């Protein structure tokens, strides 16, 4: 209202619309309605943001739990199959000692280069 009063005084008028009590109440009501609507919108935005943050955290926690569970299962499988791996390696080593390679290693055959 102060700004309106200054503008009106510069224009050379005496009073503004809000000087009338009925118009003042109406302007006050409109202003308060707008303020309450703005506050309500801000509350809704904060609630939505908070809700999305909680949802994201739940999803992240679920993903972390799944990851831990998969790692635990993998480790159990790895430990359970350890004897199979050790036995396989031992049989491989025993077979390797019995069998000897004759002639050693051979280098690969050379292929001639073709030019166009």
TrEMBL record:
Region annotation Disordered: residue ranges? 1-25, 39-116
- InterPro entries recorded for this chain? DNAJC8 (IPR042858)
Record field: compositional bias (Basic and acidic residues): 1-15, 39-88
Q: Which GO terms describe its cellular component?
A: nucleus
Q: Which domain of life is it from?
A: Eukaryota
Q: Which PANTHER family match?
A: DNAJ HOMOLOG SUBFAMILY C MEMBER 8, DNAJ HOMOLOG SUBFAMILY C MEMBER 8/LIPOPOLYSACCHARIDE SPECIFIC RESPONSE-7-RELATED
Protein name (Swiss-Prot/TrEMBL): DnaJ homolog subfamily C member 8
Which organism does this sequence originate in?
Geodia barretti (Barrett's horny sponge)
């Amino acid at each position: 209202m102060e700004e309106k009063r200054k503008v009106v005084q510069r224009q050379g008028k005496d009073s503004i619309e809000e000087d009338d009590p009925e118009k003042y109440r109406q302007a006050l009501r409109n202003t308060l309605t707008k303020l309450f609507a703005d506050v309500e919108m801000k509350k809704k935005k904060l609630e939505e943001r908070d809700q999305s943050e909680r949802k994201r955290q739940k999803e992240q926690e679920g993903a972390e739990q799944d990851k831990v569970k998969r790692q635990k299962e993998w480790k159990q499988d790895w430990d359970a199959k350890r004897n199979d791996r050790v036995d396989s390696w031992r049989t491989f080593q025993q077979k390797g000692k019995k069998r000897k390679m004759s002639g050693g290693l051979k280098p690969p055959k050379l292929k001639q280069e073709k030019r166009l």
